[in-house]
Amino acid sequence: MYRRLLINIYQVRNGLIHTQNTRLPSTKCKERESFAPVIWAPCTARPLGTSSISFSENKENSTSLSEDKEKRPEENEAKEEVNTDGQKSTEISNATLTLQLETEPVDKPEDSKQVEKTKSGKESLLELLGAMKVEVTTVRKIRPSKTPRMSERPDQEPMESTHSMFQHATAEGSQQQGTLNPALVAAVSAAASTLPNRHQAESELLKQLRKHEAVPDTQRRADGQNIGHIIADMKVGGRKTNGRSSARPTSQIRFDDDGKGYTQDRGITGELDAVRRRKSPFTSKRLNIFTAGMEQDTLSVLGPTLWDIDLANQIVQATNQAPRNGFEEMIQWTKEGKLWQYPINNEAGLEEEASVPFHEHVFLEKHLDESFPRQGPVRHFMELVITGLAKNHHLTVQQKKEHIDWFRDYFRQKDDVLKEAEA
Amino acid sequence: MASSCSQALRHHVCKSSRILRVHLQKAWPNRSFVLNPAADQQPAVSSPEEEIVIPKKKTWSKEAVLQALASTVNRDPTASDYRFQDDPYLTPKTSSEFKLFSLSQESGRNAAKYFISTYPKYFQKDYAQPHIPCLMPETLEAQIEEVSEAALIERIQMRKVKAAVDLYDQLQQAGTPVSLDVTNQLLDLICFYGDCDPAQENVPEQRNEETEDVQDEPQTKKGRASKASDKLKAAWKENNNAERIFALLSEPNTHSYSALIRGMVKYGAYSKAFSTYTDLLNNQLKADVSTFNALITAAPEVKEKYNEKWELIVDLLKQMAEQKVKPNLLTLNAVLKALRRCGTVGKSQAFPVISEMRALSIDPSLASYNHLLSIFYKPGAPFQGQTDILQEVMNEVSGKSFTPQDPDDAQFFITAVRICLDTKDIEQAYRVHELLGVGENWRLLGNDFQQNIYHARFFSLLCMMENIDVVLKWYRDLVPSVYYPSSNVMRDLLQALDTDNRLDLIPQIWKDLKQLGHGNRQTLVEELLTLMAREKQNQEVQETFAECALDIKKMYDTGDRGKVMMSWTAGSLSDLVSVLLAAQRRQDAWEILKLFKTHNRVPSEELLDKFLTCIKESGDVNQALELVQISAGFCLPGTPKLIQRVQQEFLLSEQQKSMLSDLEIQTFNSD
Lengths: 423, 671
Hints:
The structure holds two protein chains of two kinds. Chain A is mainly alpha-helical. Chain A contains 21 helices and no strands. Helix content of chain A is 69%, strand content 0%. Chain A is rod-shaped, with a radius of gyration of 48 Å. Chain B is mostly helical. Chain B has 32 helices and no strands. Chain B has helices spanning 2-35, 37-41, 64-70, 95-118, 149-157, 161-174, 180-192, 204-212, 217-233, 241-248, 254-266, 270-282, 289-302, 306-322, 329-339, 343-359, 366-376, 387-397, 412-423, 426-436, 448-465, 468-478, 487-499, 506-515, 522-534, 539-557, 570-582, 586-598, 605-618, 621-633, 639-649, 654-670. The longest helix of chain B has 34 residues, at 2-35. Chain B is elongated and about 120 Å long. The termini of chain B are far apart. The chains are: A mainly alpha, B mainly alpha. Chains A and B meet through helix 10, helix 11, helix 15, helix 16 and helix 17 of A and helix 1, helix 3, helix 7, helix 11 and helix 14 of B.
């Protein structure tokens, strides 16, 4: 599905190009494209970061050069050389190297010349390209569910499909003549008309257009082969073409130094990845005002202040405290202290007695010290009193002591009466 | 490509972490070996696993048993609120009854408390064993009469602002020194109440005011306005007692400054608070967290521009870091709340603030999320590209149980559901509702009024987005056990019924409407009638419609309990007639037709035409003539047409024919 989409997009783009440049023999284009993958295949080693670009540019040149062949005969020769070599699948790396060596010097001055010439026209053109990109991305966004497939796709496979794709393109290109984006036509012709050599300029512009469609394809293929190289490229590739790229709008930079460019332009893959990997905003970077392990200066803490109490009160007021069922109401009562606490403890509320052992309650003779007579009715009475107290579970030890003390005082007061009665 | 790259990286990370873990596992047993003295003594015998660990005695909290039991009870959608289960007679059926009953329960409780506190001498007998302090009368009168620090403390504890200030002055005049702590407490008290005596807590009205705004929107606005005016009334006064006492302090400490600044912020003296803070810095003191929190709250008030506000907040935070004051959750919430008033700056800074607090292991509470949502979704503003913020927030919070930590926590659910309603995002609404069911989160839905708003919004969204079966499922679940829908929401429900073509449920809904006390909402009833009259249903449904229509008619006739009487309109009457005609209840329809006359309404021609068709089916000539007479009585322009139809379609006697021709002439003349 996703591939289909891609192809469609390319078709549209190609359609635009071809309709614009009808003079281009379509068979030629097809031919060039068909050999291009053969060159890319051995490219896996990627001796230079810019290699794939030079190829793509090269390929573009070859199409545009159909007109001004006489200008660069040596380049065409090189291409044919490559073509034959590539078909044999021998000594390909040699061919690529030579090709590169030959094409690059030609390319660069050419490019910069063009930049100077067509600046104003190109800007509008690039705007259009930017707009095209936006369209593409919206299409992709609609089908985010197709993402996983992309990574599964075998990297080498698209050779045929690219081939057929261009066939499609050429076929449909003529059909789409009528439905050509008028803005694009206007921009290209406007740009071209500003230049002395109209045809050449136009073909240059088309070359730029072609780059946009061809390069992502190249990149993808190359990327799939070895991640390590990308990483290496990222480090090494740097910005060799700084001088040139600074003059170029951003949408073009990515073709020049592929290392950096990938992150920006890998349209579909990049964007979908971004969607997949997009971090939650909650993991965004922090303000970095405080340090994590910061120690707090301990201020004198005086227990809850009025403000703290009020805050707690406000929270309680703001939240729903109404019980939802009987048990919750009982929880509420327990918290208020109105309910006997669970687990049931029959000594609840007798906390001050908890530390008193039972014998203090039961053996009360020790309190009948010498202040009471050793024998006689008073002693007898007091023994009965402590027996009663020992059995009384309502009184605390302290209360029992007080009870005995009361009698001690009482009998002391009544001492004379007792003496009189000789008790 | 980047994906495969990242996969490779992830794989690598996984691998290395696994290796690390293996290493750690190797290292740990050795370590525990060394740390364990028993193992040290007899290294040959025991490996650490065999060691018997005696579990510690577990002390259960006093609520543990009850909590376990409470967790077994689920909500019964057929039962009313627990508060009303004591007496079936008092089961509220309408929102106003709900309001009335819950308020009377509350105020009864308050009245009892008021009496106990006002006449403590009658409530001294302590029956409870063990003693229950909360049932005993509170002491409201100061016990210590003499002029002393103890008396001052007592007055502070009883929150008697005026008395405490007077006593403090007396102490000062007598030359008795008051300790700094007590003075600070006094400052706290004065600043907290803004130098006015607090309204007595047990006075029943106070609680009423809060709960009064339970149901209707306009009333809440009134309630809020009155609260706002209360605050305005109690503005910070120049040179009030707090400032005076503060000035008397020879060496005010952090606490004194804190009290003063918080009081100033609370009562709207924002710039003064900042100057007091500068004063604090000049005195080589450090502020505490609460002071900073108060200042952050005040920050948006003292600056005009968004970025100035934010700069001030950042400045305050930096000063906190400098003074080694650890921020707390309230700091986070204060910052976020301030960011709500910083426009676009708020949007860019909200997440960094949260990350910052996370780094300090301060987890956001629901109030933080509420502020966050409010930053990104301004009510009334268009929503573009922000819909995922709610989603992100829901990703963060869903499945978590929150404890109330901030008074604003209770705002989260209504904010979230408001955004769902505004963005028509039913999926998130379900997630919000699900979150409500987690743990104790239902407590954070807030009071009855907020619950009502929440449910109204949630249910409106359901009516809008879901098909009628789902809506009705929720309807049965929520109404009336937790939610008494307002007439607007019921109209939404009717619309949902209409869209999904389930008008056959209308009689059922009418019963509920009546029970919910919306039986006398004219617009609602009229809409109901229109819906019933609009299309012809099958016979069975028409029959129930007719019953329902007659029931509605009864509502018009009897204005029960002094409620607003509904008045018949031509539209409602003709709808009623058409419903009855469709159910072949000609006699009932005839009665209604007579009502046009008594209520001075004019029936439409189509209605009379329809009526005539119906009469024709039964062939009642007399009634047909009467119909024509009624039509002539209203001087309807369609009367001649009716006469013509009667003449053509009915078998008429001579007398009737002459009568018709008379009528014809009459209408002709009147024209």
